[in-house]
Design goal:
Mean pLDDT: 89
CATH architecture of the largest domain: 2-Layer Sandwich
CATH class of the largest domain: Alpha Beta
Low-confidence stretches: none
Order of helices and strands: HHHHHHEHHEHHEEEEHH
Distance between the termini: 59 Å
Largest sheet: 6 strands, mixed
Radius of gyration: 21 Å
Structural class: alpha/beta
Strand order of the largest sheet: 3-2-1-4-5-6
Helix content: 40-55%
Number of helices: 12
Number of strands: 6
């Protein structure tokens, strides 16, 4: 039986899932057997163990009772509820790190995979100052981002297509020095043999295919996934009835966007005009 490998360093939800699996394995129970004892389905247990579903306080308390673990799981589930990582994002990252191709479109902010450390730190620092996340949650986000960026250096390297709305270049993050280094990072990214980089200029107007960020993955078996987020959670879509139109729209966006050479020239012009 194939079992998903769990990395407890990914997030609190991954740590909870791994602990639940370990406790279940110690007792020799299947997911269905644990689910029956807790009054839920085996698929629910699977979703919690693999990070596809967050453990509710009721779920954690029930698991503690069945597994005889006092209130340890209930207390551990509190960390899951206080994480800055959106529910569903851990499931996406597990696919991202093994994707053969990634297609990104972003508005207003450089995508995380392309951010410099100082740019990423400025973004999270701003969130801390606004009270949106805590300093601990900011470090959690940065740690995960570093891990995701490092995964792109695997062999063979994934093919990464990145289309950035022009707004990503004009939103000043962290001051002139941070922005100049970020511009340089984008130019270096465009020069890699496994990347395609384009800017979707403001002039596209209504011809721009997307009004929200989009991430599309192609796995080694050529299956396709799409990831999207709301303010509360992320969703990984596998149904090709929904993924295929997004792939088509992405190809249309690439056809309308600036060429890679023109995109790099736009960035270089911005760098020359920077203080």
């Amino acid at each position: 039986m194939n079992r998903k490998e769990l990395n407890p360093e990914e997030s609190p939800i991954a740590r909870f899932g791994l602990r639940l699996r370990q406790l279940r394995d110690e007792r020799g129970w299947t997911q269905d057997e644990l689910g029956a004892r807790m009054g839920c389905s085996g698929s629910h247990i699977s979703a919690v163990e693999t990070g596809r579903r967050s453990p509710t306080p009721h779920f954690a308390a029930s698991a503690d009772k069945v597994l005889g673990t006092g209130d340890r799981l209930e207390r551990q589930s509190e960390a899951v509820r206080h994480t800055a990582i959106l529910e569903g994002f851990t499931e996406y990252v597990a696919q991202e790190v093994k994707a053969a191709e990634l297609r990104l479109f972003e508005l207003g902010i450089v995508p995380g995979l392309l951010q410099t450390p100082h740019y990423a730190e400025a973004i999270t620092t701003g969130a801390v100052r606004r009270g949106a996340i805590t300093a601990h949650q900011a470090e959690e986000r940065l740690t995960l981002l570093r891990s995701r960026q490092a995964s792109l250096e695997r062999t063979p390297a994934p093919l990464v297509f990145a289309v950035l709305d022009e707004s990503c270049l004009h939103r000043r993050v962290g001051g002139p020095g941070v922005m100049d280094a970020q511009y340089a990072r984008l130019v270096a990214f465009a020069e890699l043999p496994s990347t395609v980089f384009q800017i979707a200029p403001y002039e596209l107007g209504e011809r721009r295919s997307f009004d929200l960020p989009v991430t599309l993955l192609t796995l080694a078996d050529r299956s396709h996934l799409a990831y999207s987020e709301s303010a509360q959670q992320g969703r990984l879509e596998r149904d090709m009835r929904f993924v295929q139109p997004m792939l088509t729209a992405y190809h249309q966006l690439q056809a309308e966007a600036l060429s890679q050479a023109a995109s790099v020239a736009m960035i270089e012009n911005l760098r020359k005009g920077a203080p």
